[in-house]
Amino acid sequence: MPSKTEAIAALRAHASTGAPNDMRAAFASDEGRFAAHHAVLDDMLLDWSKCRVNTETLGLLEALAAASKVEERRDRMFAGERINATEDRAVLHTALRNRSGEAVTVDGSDVMSDVNAVLAAMADFSHGIRAGTLTGSNGGAITDVVNIGIGGSDLGPAMAVLALAPYHDGPGCHFVSNVDGAHIADTLDGLDPATTLFIVASKTFTTIETMTNAKTARSWVVNALGEAAVSSHFCAVSTALDKVDAFGIPEDRIFGFWDWVGGRYSLWSAIGLPLMLAIGPEKFGDFLSGGYAMDRHFREAPTRENLPMMLGLIGYWHRAICDYPSRAVIPYDQRLARLPVYLQQLDMESNGKGVTVTGEPVDGVSGPVVWGEPGTNGQHAFFQLIHQGTDIIPVEFLVAANSHEPGLRHHHDLLLANCFAQSAALMAGRTLEEAKAQMASKGVDGRAIDEIAPHRVFSGNRPSLTLVYDKLDPFTLGRIIALYEHRVFVEAQLYGINAFDQWGVELGKELATALLPVVETGEGASERDGSTAALVAHARSLSGK
Ligand SMILES: O=P(O)(O)OC[C@H]1O[C@H](O)[C@H](O)[C@@H](O)[C@@H]1O
């Protein structure tokens, strides 16, 4: 078996000599191309055949996966080993969706009884709120839920609540994350304190944005309903139970989770409470089951049939071997509008690292920039650059075969046609001759053809992957999120980095804390760098300070 260095060198050599560089020819010369370059899990199909890879590429990527010990490390993660070495923690978001009935142990003790106890408490609470038996302080049913959290305590539930809108039969859900007072002000505008429940969601219960918004929400409730109302209008989700206590939230309204759940992997924990309130405990269970189904597939399927493995290997190929700096995630699904933003945290906070697990500088590159918007909207905005710009940006398309609007089937067929047309266009492109012929067939005169045709050329050979599934139901959303979590894991093993810490966000937080008194009083500004001092002074003078 080659070493990791040898496996990477072999991939680099293959990229310039062995990988296909004419995708039209690759399809034309190989009827089995699609068959060799896709994988399925039940209704879910991942097609990577439009990427510039062949079976030799796959073999070399498999060799790299073996040299990087991806499977061994995967098994260590599932087994509850402390693979997050810099924080000395296990990584067990998979235990939160473990539907097997089997134990999952950390340091010799089974965590499943705690996991199931919190799930049961969340279900009781959700039933009470949804049925109107747990009311506001005046006895009125809760009509609106406001989740106050940021990062992993916001992006997951906000994304999932929107994604599963057709399944909502609970209170309306709102999300406040930004410390910008505009966010909470706009959200509370129009809500009635008597019928509003706040969830204060913070793993650490120290995050300044969340604590500031929670205090503002608390005053809003107290001013309208009195101090005694806090216990009926607040609940909390955290791993820091002692800190929640001090906020005045009763114990039976505090839902815990554990340090082995990373913030960006926490949607499966009590952080998912807004989703459970919106769709009910049973459908939340379906969401967990979807995650579990993907976990089993990730652990059991051979590499080429394994969706997370293949998504990760092709992702690495594009980023580290082909050197493409970003990837676009384009769900042809309006309800997945927040998926790209969710994946930005999942992927970029996990794999945006400059050192390896052993603290050495990363040799080469680590994770790409992840971005995107739903299709078809993106087509009318930034797709120009993806088709004809000078950077190559691999695209990941997601689309459901069926919508929740059977009466609008024509819309959905248009959506599917657009999605599949984009990947075909990126792959095949259009030659100068084709552009000229097309113009001639429309009666354009020869001189105009010569002038304009070069602008109508598409290089083609632009890679994309497509994920097609039956319908975006809770189970499928669970599969999609777990698929992306594991792809991030696979890529991290190939880069040799720890995907589960996030030291890179610390410095800005520390500096903001130190700068707050300077902004408030102006004192100490002169000790800052010239730009920062001048910016503070300008803002202070504009605000009349
Ligand atoms: O849930 P919290 O402890 O409030 O943390 C919220 C977020 O803040 C941090 O800055 C981290 O970068 C994120 O990973 C985390 O999700």
Automatic annotation (TrEMBL):
It catalyses: alpha-D-glucose 6-phosphate = beta-D-fructose 6-phosphate. SUPFAM superfamilies: SIS domain (SSF53697). It is found in: Cytoplasm. InterPro entries: G6P_Isomerase, G6P_Isomerase_C, Phosphoglucose_isomerase_CS, SIS_dom_sf, SIS_PGI_1, SIS_PGI_2. It comes from the Bacteria. The keyword Cytoplasm applies. Its EC number is 5.3.1.9. One of its GO terms (molecular function) is glucose-6-phosphate isomerase activity. The active site is at residues 349, 380, 509. Belongs to the GPI family. This is Glucose-6-phosphate isomerase. It comes from Oricola cellulosilytica.
